[in-house]
Inverse folding.
């Protein structure tokens, strides 16, 4: 399926059905990327989100490690700090990010920090097998202060590249290995 429409990621308008679409009025970043679903594929949003992180390109992992080194001195949470769970707190996560909600059509994950809050929605759109069936990744960010705005300005170009690469990698793995409806 190399170069098929099932691996072509495109920028799309924020879907109104995404639960985070209006979460942060006047948000500093709100974007959405989509990839088509092959006919007959049923997708569990949480499984696909886990697949996205499992198939993160090496260059993106390296950028995230560099981010951790650079932000540690500013009081911004590192990946390790986000993954640390307070004893007694049962917080479900996808990789380093907290899961806020989920159902058969959408999962919402993200993090809150001193500089900004963000949410990511992985939304199953349309009916499986239909021409418009797709997975849409929606991101919304609300900055609290100048540090948040500067941070967002610096990472936004990388966010866009990583979001698209993650969606493309998840689609490639899910469709190739039939993982869309299996535990990942």
């Amino acid at each position: 399926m190399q170069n098929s429409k099932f691996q072509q990621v495109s920028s799309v308008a924020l879907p109104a059905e995404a639960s985070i679409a209006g979460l942060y009025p006047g948000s500093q970043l709100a974007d959405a990327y989509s990839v088509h679903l092959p006919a007959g594929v049923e997708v569990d949003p949480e499984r696909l989100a886990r697949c996205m992180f499992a198939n993160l390109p090496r260059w993106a992992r390296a950028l995230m490690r560099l981010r951790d080194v650079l932000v540690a001195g500013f009081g911004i949470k590192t990946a390790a700090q986000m993954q640390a769970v307070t004893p007694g707190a049962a917080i479900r996560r996808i990789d380093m990010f907290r899961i806020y909600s989920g159902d058969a059509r959408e999962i919402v994950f993200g993090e809150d920090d001193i500089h900004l809050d963000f949410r990511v929605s992985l939304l199953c759109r349309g009916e499986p097998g239909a021409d418009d069936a797709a997975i849409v990744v929606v991101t919304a960010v609300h900055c609290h202060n100048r540090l948040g705005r500067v941070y967002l300005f610096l990472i936004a170009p990388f966010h866009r590249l990583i979001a698209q690469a993650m969606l493309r990698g998840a689609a490639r793995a899910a469709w190739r290995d039939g993982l869309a409806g299996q535990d990942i």
About this structure: Residues 29 and 141 are 5 Å apart (CA to CA). Residues 179-184 have pLDDT under 50 and may be disordered. Residues 10-174 form a domain with the Alpha-D-Glucose-1,6-Bisphosphate; Chain A, domain 4 fold (CATH 3.30.530).
